[in-house]
Amino acid sequence: MCVNAFLLALVLLQQHKTAQFQEEASAGAVSALANSGIAFHLERVPRDMELAGLNFTQDRSGEQAAAEALLGRVTEQAESTTMRTLYAGANGSAEFFMSGEFSVALDAGVYQADPDELERAGRDCLALLGMEAELVSRETREQESVWTYRQLWEDVPVFSCQVELTWRDGSLVLLRGRRLAGSALPADTGAPLTTATVLVRFLAGLNEGNYVCSSIDGMRAGYVVVGSDYRFGRDRKGDVDTLRSYADEYGYKVIVIDKLEQDDEVVSSTVIRKNISEGDVRSVIPMLGRPYSMTGEVVSGKQLGRTIGIPTANMLPEERKLYPPAGVYASRIRIIRGKHTGHEDPFRVYMGITNIGDNPTVNDKGNITIETNIFDFDRNIYGQVIKVELIEQIRGEKKFGSLDELKAQMANDIETSKRILANKVLVK
Fold it and tell me: Which of 155, 189, 256, 428 sits between 20 and 30 A of 353, alpha carbons compared?
């Protein structure tokens, strides 16, 4: 009995020291935030958060019903794949991805609402898709009003599942985002990040210039999503079971994802990065559930492409973006923000060819460039935002002796790209 009492005292002492350390770390982080002009209301952080854990299974069987709830009777398109399913109806079109991402384009006038009732109308519309949601933000873009909602699952926000509803003149013309649809079963939960850890990480991001705010009004529990072989902590001794062991104390939703395999190889971020770095962008499409893409604003270049009859849309490379090696790639292009994203065809996918590299034939400075020739497209899209999906590498980068040689090779590359993109089955 004495031994048990002694052990109990040690446990209680350790818990007290841990709690004291967390309180001191939180207070220090709050003070550091205050010195940066940011107010953090520590008293608003919930101390007792009880959220039941769920194992969630995505179910795609209801996608057609969801499309028909908004569009009326629809038919599946021939170019649908296991990763991406397309539907067309009299009132618009829809596409659903295996990842849970989706887009629904509605013809003007199909779904109308009074300007004062847009928030409620948006919730009702999402309910047709089987989604309960909360309003996150509202933004006005030119002639459009964009309302962003976050999905709720049993009244708990799902932070990675947000949907944008675009209204134009009181008419809903576009829904785009990610949703969870399927079934959920009770599961063990894991330990969330402590308040102190969150604040310290926020401070680190603040020091790097990544965050701008004046006040933090509260914090809510979220989710831990890990792979079945997840390891963490000193000497990587922590694992999924370790996370679950803290469930009763901290309580939040934890989701464990089983490993996927492709061609007898485990799909992982390491494999994906390796394949991209080697230029094998085709192989990562089924791994990601979508083509590897680059998004950015179209900027003015040297306009040398126009001199050889092959104009390009130029994008600036991102500093921390992983790019495949220099070369020419068959690509698909979407205009995701700008005056050419009309509701009549918001999901228009253009075909093209993209060059990544320093373009040695015409570039004497060695700067990295991203240049995309969009087939059968002659409109001015400077300042607009495009998304370029890389489908397959055609060749590596090469320096030509003249612009005529470059023009001849580009003509061959364009024909090769068209043959690749003509194959609707872009995933295995």
Answer: 428
Q: What is the pLDDT of residue 164?
A: 92
User: CA-to-CA distance for 368 and 389, rounded, in angstroms?
Assistant: 18
Give the per-residue SS3 of the chain. CHHHHHHHHHHHHHHHHHHHHHHHHHHHHHHHHHHCCCEECHHHCCCCCCCCEEEEEECCCCHHHHHHHHHCCEEECCCCCCCEEEEEECCEEEEEECCCEEEEEECCCCCECCHHHHHHHHHHHHHHCCCEEEEEEEEEECCEEEEEEEEEECCEEEEEEEEEEEEECCEEEEEEEECCCEEEEEECCCCCCCHHHHHHHHHHHHHCCCCCCCEECCCCCCEEEEECCCCECHHHCECHHHHHHCHHHHCCEEEEECCCEECCEECCHHHHHHHHHCCCCCCHHHHHCCCEEEEEEEECCCCHHHHCCCCCEEECCCCCCCCCCCEEEEEEEEEEECCCCCCCCCCCCEEEEEEEECCCCCCCCCCCEEEEEECCCCCCCCCCEEEEEEEEEEEECCCCCCHHHHHHHHHHHHHHHHHHHHCCCCCC
CATH label, 60-180, candidates 3.90.1690, 3.90.1170, 3.30.460, 3.30.310? 3.30.310
Question: Where is pLDDT greater, at 13 or 83?
Answer: 83
pTM of the model: 0.48
Inform me whether the pLDDT recorded for 373 exceeds 60. Answer: yes
CATH class entry, domain 290-422: mainly beta
Domain coordinates of the chain in residue numbers?
60-180, 290-422
Tell me the per-residue pLDDT of 408-426, one tens digit each, with 9 for 90 and over. Answer: 888 999 999 999 988 755 5
Which token pair is 374?
């969009």
Do the beta carbons of residue 188 and residue 216 sit within 8 Å?
no
More confident residue, 82 or 221: 82
Write the pLDDT tens digit of every residue in 335-369: 877 655 543 445 578 999 999 986 554 454 456 78
Query: What value does the mean pLDDT of the chain take?
Result: 77
- Rounded to 10°, the helix 63-71/118-128 angle is 140
The confidence score (pLDDT) of residue 50 equals: 47
